[in-house]
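Input record (one chain):
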Amino acid sequence: MQTFTGHIPYSKKVLGFFAVMVALIATVAILGIIVGMIGDFIIEGGPNITGAFLTEFPRNSNTEGGIFPALIGTTFLVMIMTIMGVPIGTATAIYLSEFAKQDSVFARSVRFAVNTLAGVPSIVFGLFGVGFFVQFLGKGLDNATGSSSFGDGSLLWASATLAVLTLPVVIVSVEEALRAVPRELREASLALGATRWQTIVRVVLPNAVSGILTGSILAVGRGAGEVATILFVGVTYSAEQLPGSITDKFMHLGYHLYVLATQSPDVDKTLPLQYATTLVLLALTFTLNFSAIFVRSRLRRN
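The corresponding structure, as predicted from the sequence alone:
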């Protein structure tokens, strides 16, 4: 019988060192690219971020003025998207993890649909939003109420479209968090007389809340910067006032940046505004993510 002598062959040491160095170089390269990009945006766009830039409305075909309506529109869009998407994604994950039989045809069909949605291009979700939310639901609500407030693109339908886009992210992350809760906790709760639903609400979900917030963070990170998805469902080129309700059109930082870079009468003149808008969009995304991370860390400590 061969016994381990404690000596690692030289070739394996070299191979292990090479693997560590490749991983280290890749990590440093990625961090360097991120730091370089953010640094470039700060240098080029930072001096242009003023109080007027953040609080004024755009003027002169978006070549002058500020980004206030785009900032507010993006914030509302992300908040409504999260409210609409996270509960549905969490409920779906609870069903798949706690109630569905893992080998059932229905459960496999749902997982196949989730995996398929994760690979669908974002522009396809935008066309789906036009066909289903705007044309089908919107026109139906207009016929029912006798008004015309739902049959056009709006903040509501754009948020709903983004919620569908981010559903796979939420479902997968929450389901993994639920699976990470030890099975013994469920069995102990059931043994003490709790019902299955009580076990889920009082035992499983509190222990998986950090994973649920992780899904929310990922959804916010993806939804905040999406432009193709909302092109046809409510975003507007420019606005002279803020949206007064969820049925109004809105401005978006990502789309505003696209307009400045491609459709402005003088692209070179708007280049400083492009950098500043990009920096604000990154800051907004990081703020929303860090807020969720802060809440998650507090919940973990408690």
